[in-house]
Each structure stands twice: as C-alpha cells, then as structure tokens.
From TrEMBL:
Biological classification of the source: Archaea, Methanobacteriati, Methanobacteriota, Stenosarchaea group, Halobacteria
Membrane topology of the entry: Multi-pass membrane protein
Stated family: Belongs to the binding-protein-dependent transport system permease family.
Keywords (A to Z) from UniProt: Cell membrane, Membrane, Transmembrane, Transmembrane helix, Transport
Annotated source species: Salinigranum rubrum
Protein name, UniProt field: ABC transporter permease
Subcellular location: Cell membrane
PROSITE patterns: ABC_TM1 (PS50928)
Transmembrane segments: 40-60, 91-109, 129-149, 216-238, 259-283, 375-398
Domain ABC transmembrane type-1: 210-398
Amino acid sequence: MATETDSRTGYGGDGAQHETFEDIDWSDEGGRTVLSRRDLGVLGVLAVLAAAFVYDYVVVPTDTATFEFDLPPSVPLFGEEFVWDVTQLDWLFILTLVVMVFYVVVPLYDNRRLTAYYWRQFRKNRLAVVSLGYLIVVFFVGTVGPIFIPTPEIALTQQYQPPMFTTVDSSVPLQCVGEVTGDVCHGSLAHPLGTTSDGKDILVLVIYGMQVSMKLGLITTLLVISIGTAVGTVAAYSGGTVDEVLMRYVDIQLTFPTFLLYLLLVFLFGGSLFMFIVLFGLTSWGGISRLVRSEALQLREEEYVLAAKSAGANAAYVIRRHLVPNVSSTVITAATLAIPGYILAEAALSFLQLGDPTIPSWGQVIAAGRSDLDSAWWISTFPGFFLFFTILAFNFMGDALRDALDPRADK
C-alpha cells in the first residue's frame, strides 16, 4: 500500500525520506541509466586507483616497497625515510574509503539540512556521541599510525616492562628500561603500556590492532551491504521467479557453515586476514538482503516509483535512483551493528591461533598474555579494553542511528 509523502519535508509515513513530485526530474526518467556526477567522480578515482594498483604489481619490483623516499630533517619523529609497502588488504581498504566518501560523506554534505536533522536526533544519545568520538580517534590512529610506526619487533632485553605509573619486581624483566628502586622496576614513557613476554611494545601492538579492526570491519561490511542491497532490491522489484530464486538461494546460504569452510582453508593454506574478509564478506550478506527486500517491497508501491515506471524508466534506473537511496537508512543501521560482530569474530579466531600470524591483532595479543595474567596483567588487559570499548561503541552508535534514521523507532 502506498504511503503519503509530505511535500515540504519529503518524509513519508514509513519514516523514510522520499523524493517529492516536484523534486523528480521527469525528463531523466527514460529507459537509459544516466550516470550522475558523483558516479562519474567515483569512476575517475577508481581509474586512478587501478593505475596505481597496476604500477604496484607490474612496475615496482617484488622485494621493493610501493612508496619509499627520504624525509626532510624537519620531521625527525618518523625517522629518516618513509616506507609503505601497499598490500592487497591496503588496496581494498583504500577502495572502501573511496566508496564511503562518495556515498556517505558527500551525500551528507550535499543534504546539510537533512544531516542537521539527523545529528539533532543522534546527539540525544550522549553515549553514542562519546562512542562516535572514540571511534573517530581509533580510525585515524589505526589508519595513519602504522604507516609511520615500524612493525613491533622482538626485543628480549625489554621483556615484561610494566606500564607507566606501575611497578613490577625487577627480577621479572631481563633489563628494566625505567627507574629501579630497590627490587622494583618502574614503568617509563619509553613503553607507556608496557611490553610483552618477547619485548614488543604493547602501545604499538594496540595501534596495529586498531588498523586490523578498522580494515576488517569496514571492508567486510562494504562487501556484505553491497551484495545484500543489490540482491534484496532486485528480488523485491522483480518479484515472481527472480524473487523466488534469489530468496531460496539466500535460505541456503544462511545455513552454509562458513566457519567450517574457514577452518578448512586455514588447514590448507594457513590463516589470512584477506581470506577472512573475502570469505565472510561473500557469504554473510543473507540477513542484509532479507532486510532490504522487506523494505523495498513496500517502496516499490510508492507513487513516485509507479510514476517512474509509467514514464518508461527501466528496472536498473528505478532500483538505483529510487529503491537503493530509500533503504539506505536501514542498511546503514544494520551495517553499524554488523561491524562489531566481524571484529569480535576475528579476535576470537586470532585468540584460538586461527587468525593471520603475520598481522598483530588484539585477539592475538590477548592470547599471548593469557598465561602471564598473574605477573604481567597488562599484556592481555590493554588490548582487551580496546576490543571491549570498540565493540561497545559500535553497538551504542548502531542503536542511536536506528533511532535517528527511523522515526518509527521507539524513542
């Protein structure tokens, strides 16, 4: 059943924002799918990324970093040279950031009035605002930090160094980096969060864990929402046999043992963060597709969709122009709540030694310190705190976004 849309605000009775009759460019509702300026901008950036990717894998020698150049003396903090070897995961992460900028940040900037309304609703939840600030810090530190901070290395002379403002029996570490008072070793600024049993700095490990969590959560979620939204909207708009076939496939996929397949691949090829992202990203979109389909089934009966079809718009145009934008609030909320699940799953697998052993993650560090909780509590505690607060922050944000984006939600 169609819902009425307020001609002044553009909000329908279902709580979603719809284009009003005056907002629709009826001259553009033909059968051709016309790319918008934003789509052209995305294609331009993707072309540049593709050229850079080809340069990295064709021109740059295998044993040479992608970017490597000397730094001026004015920036001694980061050493004498800048070295960044862009991996497959880095390329996927860059692609994810490009999509987020063009399809999340740019629309929010273009619709500043609507963004201000959403922000007023969102900031009513103070815990969500604090969580947003925390996640922004984690994102930027985790994204930029590892580019300049070298990978933590084993330093057997710096084992079990305590965090700042704490002490430990000096007989435990092989050599105390901080001040020694009697038989007590004091923590120092050299290792603010202490070190592990093999001398790795925990602060550096935490920062690298931020990078792993952000890459994992954002890339996997982008794959999930992209496939799920496409399948859900196509199934809802097409109906009939197409809907039946797609939904029966979703039913089968939801019962597929992804975890067992991951264990088999780990046994055959070893743990890999890239493999985790691709596997779970390509097999975990069933729930999103069902959610999107239920929303799109209502939207396809809206007057503006029926008018677009009557004007000769093809299915691809209606789905891209009308269905996808109006299910975006549901997708964003579901995505925000899905990210912590993937982060927690990776941490659990790393804790069980089923993750990528070459990439320091929070779960890996927590596992490394579980046998030293009585004498070196900080090894597992600090990564555990960051993992806990990151999961909690995403959950708070998801609840607040659901209330802000869906007026039908209970306030």
